[in-house]
Amino acid sequence: MLKINWNTGLVLEGGGMRGVFTSGVLDAFMKYQLYFRYTVAVSAGACNGMSYISRQPRRARISNIDYLARYHYIGLRHLVTQGCIFDRQLLYDRFPNQLLPFDFDEFFKHSAGFEMVTTNCLTGRPMYLSETKDKQRALDIVRASSSLPYVSKIVMVDGIPMLDGGILDSIPVERAIATGHEHNVVILTRNKGWRDTGVDRKTPNFIYKNYPRLRLALSKRHVAYNRQLQLVDDLEAAGKITCIRPLRPLEVGRIEKDTAKLERLYEEGFELGEKFCQEQV
């Protein structure tokens, strides 16, 4: 079994509400004081990763399960009123600043080694961003990283229009390797062997009409994701990465609102994360 060292990286996949699995794993990591020098995260993984980097156990769980039941922040009414299927005002303003205070001071102590993936709408390529001082920029980056295409507004970061980092880099393991990390722990939100059976189609010109390279990227999403899943399987078989992924058949969707299902997936993540930590002793 892998023993964590200075050159071990941590990779966090996205997946919308499937990310409660990741929050369970990360809560177990925090219980055992297991932290990594370098973490790269995308979309829901970036949201969970922020609470991990700020050393706030159960914060992501409360946000994803307890507060979902209380505030019902997923729904079409938010798409109509805010241009996003998630209540962005609640998630990225009231939660971190009032209801579920985010420890920015602790976050910034460790955030130099934390990268969040976004998609540059102008280039159609992924960007890997960190922030060590500016609270609003950190929130803008994580908001951009988790802004799903079609059901979220484009987010401006550094004057650049950005969307969900998972459009082309859902599992940024190649980024972790490129930054010099010889071995990586990869937390996935799909069962082993799963493949996206969707069909890629050319994105119509009237959608994101000012961003032709983004449209091209969106037209390759399924192929790109399946290619990354195969790469993960190959790297795992070669012993170059260690994967933590759901073992039970997945019953949680990207915009799941059934908190009982979310609770079960969180608990599975915590159990597997705890087992992983115990094997490091």
User: How many DSSP helices?
Assistant: 11
What fraction of the residues are assigned to beta strands by DSSP? 5-15%
Terminal-residue CA separation: 11 Å
Would you report the number of β strands?
8
- The residue fraction in helices comes out at 40-55%
Radius of gyration: 18 Å
Give your account of this protein's structure.
With 281 residues, the chain is an alpha/beta fold. It has eleven helices and eight strands. It has helices at residues 20-31, 44-53, 59-71, 76-82, 88-99, 104-110, 135-145, 173-178, 212-218, 221-237, 259-279, and strands at 8-12, 38-42, 114-120, 125-129, 155-157, 160-164, 183-187, 241-244. Strands 1, 2, 3, 4, 5, 6, 7 and 8 form an eight-stranded mixed β-sheet that branches. The longest helix has 21 residues, at 259-279. The protein is globular and about 55 Å long. The mean pLDDT is 93.
